[in-house]
Amino acid sequence: MFDVKTLCLGILTMGDASGYEIKKIFEERFSHFFAASFGSIYPALNKLTQEGLVTCAAQAQSKRPDKKVYSITPAGKIAFMDTLNQPLAPDRHRSEFLALMMFSHLLTLRQLSDAIDGKIAEYRREIDAISDCENERPCSPGEEFVAGFGKAIYEAAIRYVEDHRHIVEGPALLSAAPEKDLTS
Amino acid sequence: MFDVKTLCLGILTMGDASGYEIKKIFEERFSHFFAASFGSIYPALNKLTQEGLVTCAAQAQSKRPDKKVYSITPAGKIAFMDTLNQPLAPDRHRSEFLALMMFSHLLTLRQLSDAIDGKIAEYRREIDAISDCENERPCSPGEEFVAGFGKAIYEAAIRYVEDHRHIVEGPALLSAAPEKDLTS
DNA sequence: TGATACTATATCATACCGATATATTGCAAG
DNA sequence: CTTGCAATATATCGGTATGATATAGTATCA
Cβ contact (<8 Å) for A104 and B34? Predict the structure, then answer.
């Protein structure tokens, strides 16, 4: 069971980090399959510290809030290796775009086309973000696999939407047509 | 912004339903892009009733809890049409499988292969579930589009994982090999 | 000089999930 | 022939997570 707490622990197996740095790692390398906000990361780190799975060294910085650098403990490593054997929960997806498409019959052609074009653009941005991340740092096999997965999925999504948008746009086109029919 | 409350309202534009029936609709037709539990559906329906966007008619059933059938009001329809114009939040995904793959270097080949095989099987089950749903009822264009999207994505996922599992399994194979090397 | 962005930690209301409670019907396997 | 499981039906609660906001100094660019 991979909650934010467990993933923070996992990230700390790759090296010490502050809460802020962990957030950046979530955004840069985990964003297309997992999200975590400060509101869950900071409490998670506090709990992990209480449980003795990580330690916290406060680096006093002049003119900035103390930087709290967290390190995983041997007990923490054992706990993390343990969760790696736990059964995986099924994937979960939330797409407001697909929810909107379920009600395509209530939309005008314009609304529909704008939503679809915007979504394709979003998918392209995701692909670019993954490519950037790949180029910046050397990747472990795991990271390479996950990045490739993300790209493959977004590319498939673009292909599907481009090839099948007519399914929803067609009927909207017809329901907008009657105006023209009067003149023909 | 499509939260559970808004989607309940949307489902009620397609016909009256009880909380229990709404849950089933979420599971059967929305499950691959949106999840909602009783813990969010019942409170959502209560709020919608308070706001006058739906009405509730309690059907007394002998030997069962009263069935509360909800209907959307004209004000509810207007409110729903209104949210359809709101900007879409980006898609969100949570995959424990990909999280696990990020730590593939900590796993044995056996753990890795089992996880991958299990995930492929899960993807296949999802595709079958979508196909079943398609055959059972006549589909609106929106439903057809969304179902096709789900299938396309899961098929792409299977293809990617089958074609690229060696990226993570290869290194695990090598780190397990030394035993054999002694005899060769 | 002012605006914006970045580093850095923290909290709070709101939302949501998963488990559990309660109660009845009906079917199937042992 | 009864025991257990699945389905129908509503509801609550603890725990987890999000998104917005607060605070506060540095840096950069116009």
Answer: no
Residue B130 neighbours by CB under 8 Å, 6+ apart: B32, B147, B150, B151, B154
Domain range annotation of chain B = 4-83, 96-181
Average pLDDT, chain A: 91
Question: A160–B152: do the CB atoms touch at under 8 Å?
Answer: yes
Within 7 Å of a protein beta carbon, the nucleotides of strand D are 8-14, 16-21, 23-26
Q: In the CATH hierarchy, which fold is given to the domain comprising A4-83?
A: Arc Repressor Mutant, subunit A (1.10.10)
Dihedral of alpha carbons B58, B60, B64, B69, sign: negative
Rounded Cα gap, residues A74 and B109, in angstroms: 24
Radius of gyration from C-alpha coordinates of chain A = 23
Express as a percent the part of chain A with pLDDT over 70.
92
- Provide the whole-model pTM: 0.92
Question: CB closer than 7 A to strand D: which residues?
Answer: A 3-5, 35-40, 44, 63-65; B 18-21, 23-24, 37-39, 42-43, 45-46, 61, 64-69, 89, 92
Residue range B126-148: average pLDDT?
90
